[in-house]
Amino acid sequence: MVRRGRYPKEFKIEAVRLLNSGDKPASEVAMELGVKRTLLYRWRDQVEEKGKAVFSGSGRPKIEQLDEVSRLKRELREVTEERDILKKAAAYFAKNLK
């Protein structure tokens, strides 16, 4: 089983810079750095998508974050339901005022 490589943020950013410079083809840059060409393209896409906040974090959210997300989703669901009920009630009472 091949273990996936972990590369520091600075390495990835420099690799993307080399790829974007256009001095060498992507396959040559990848060979010199010892990574797959598709990985370079993936890193480039991530840099274009996220900008300066790219490659931050370990990839998996912590348990506390997952708990917080679950709590916030539950709260959002409740508030959305309450809003819908209030909309229906407002429409009902507005119709009866006429």
Which oligomeric form is depicted? single chain
**Low-pLDDT regions:** none
**Cα end-to-end separation:** 74 Å
Structural class: mainly alpha
In CATH, the topology of the largest domain is named Arc Repressor Mutant, subunit A
What radius of gyration results from the CA coordinates? 24 Å
Q: Mean of residue pLDDT? A: 85
* Helix amount: over 70%
CATH class division of the largest domain? Mainly Alpha
Overall number of domains: 2
Share in β-strands:
under 5%
CATH architecture of the largest domain: Orthogonal Bundle
Order of helices and strands: HHHH
- Silhouette: elongated
The number of E-state strands comes to 0
What count of helical segments does DSSP give? 4
Largest sheet properties: none
What would you say about this model in short?
This protein has 4 helices and no strands. By secondary structure, it is mainly α.
Walk me through the structure.
By secondary structure, the chain is mostly helical. The N and C termini lie far apart (74 Å). It has helices at 9-21, 26-33, 37-50, 63-97. The longest helix is centred in the C-terminal third of the chain and has 35 residues, at 63-97. The mean pLDDT is 85. The protein is elongated, with a radius of gyration of 24 Å. The chain has four helices and no strands. It folds into two domains: 1-59, Arc Repressor Mutant, subunit A; 61-98.
